[in-house]
Amino acid sequence: MTTVTRILGLDPGLRLTGWGVVESDGHRLSHVANGIVRSTDTLSLAERLRQLHDGLQSVIETWRPQEAAIEETFVNKNPASTLKLGQARGVVMLAPALAGVPVAEYAPNAIKKTVVGVGHAAKDQIHAMVKVLLPGVTIEGADAADALAAAICHAHYANARAIERRVGSTAGAGVRLGGTAR
Fold it and tell me: Considering its fold, how many domains does the chain have in total?
């Protein structure tokens, strides 16, 4: 017997934060919703971070996810941009945590490999595969596609962990499947 799990994928950014909600029922995935939370460039950093928080809080209240997945941040060449992205990422992680939703993190290459099959896939490949994995989906933009990819990755690893628990409990062996969620 499988249980349906609602997963919120998040792709943090200060200007645009993508979000996507999928439901996982065993190996079956279905699209629920996706979109982008925007912040206003002319506002102060603190006000922009609040916009991200408030937007994500609204998404969480509307779609009621049980779990969340976020892409780990890569380091930019520009330290100021990296710092701002880190602050936005902190808010993006905080919003589900404040709602009691556990947050898992995945390396960008793990997400790409799960969705596309290649760890260094291009954004357009990710977008195309998300459409294949979630038939009929209308994606609100590249950031929302990346967020849906994070949610798909989380569902994949959650299924692997469930299999690992079942195999481990019946075989008494410590079977370990590849991949990690931090």
Answer: 1
